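## retry 2 of 3
previous attempt timed out at serialization; input unchanged, resubmitting
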Amino acid sequence: MSGQSPGHRLAKRIVVKLTPILFATLVSTAACGAETPTEQAVPEPVVHAMLGAGATSHTVVVEDARSVEDGFFRGVTPASGARVVVRTGADAYEFQEDASAPGYYHASFPVEAGRRYSLEVTSRGGRVVTGETLVPAPPRMVRPAADTTVAQGEMARLEWQGSRPSAGYVLVWRRADRDGPSTAQEVASRRAPTVLQDTTVQVDVLSMGVFYGFATELRFFVTAVDENFREYVRPDGEPDPDGARRQIRSTVRGGYGLFGSYAISDGRVVGVR
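## retry succeeded, writing output
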């Protein structure tokens, strides 16, 4: 995912950082209601990819897990030699493996909000993993209308115009004076990132700035996410639609992992005076 705008530059590494960070923080919790394999094979294919609305460069991470035990992947290694294709309408885009990073596959093509994209990964051993995502449109920040400040001890209210199709929103923030972590790193820094259904939230800038060297100015973004991402990070206490409790989350078929999409809003700086 590359960026044509500050928001896209913020998310440039959204998939590159999905593993092993998301493996360690997200993948061992309760499964979502998406289809998951019923029989275990060795190795199990594990795929992670997120398409960004408006981005032109994309990465798919393909790995092999020796086994799945007690809700954890065991013996995860990069999966070289896979065939990775993303399709939309009559267009097909084949990914090329990174010669310096086995298991990382790259391709360049435009991703449009509102379009449906499908992923097909064929492992060297012939296992096929598939997934589909409907890309949301970027939210638009409404409040504050421009960069602003609040008094010490005052909560700042963020409000945005919702986008369609979107399954919810993830708040992202970083220091206002540096590029800082990408969306994936922000999301993965918490075990179960909150996917908001509302379009407004109150934030405590000073408390949130503690993690950035006690910063008193933060830049906030809102990331619209698709249904796959929302399901993938469902809180442990929230049941699957069918009432089941599985140990591994997955939104792909034929393997494990996540194929989803996102769109990032314009940013707002909020400082404390």
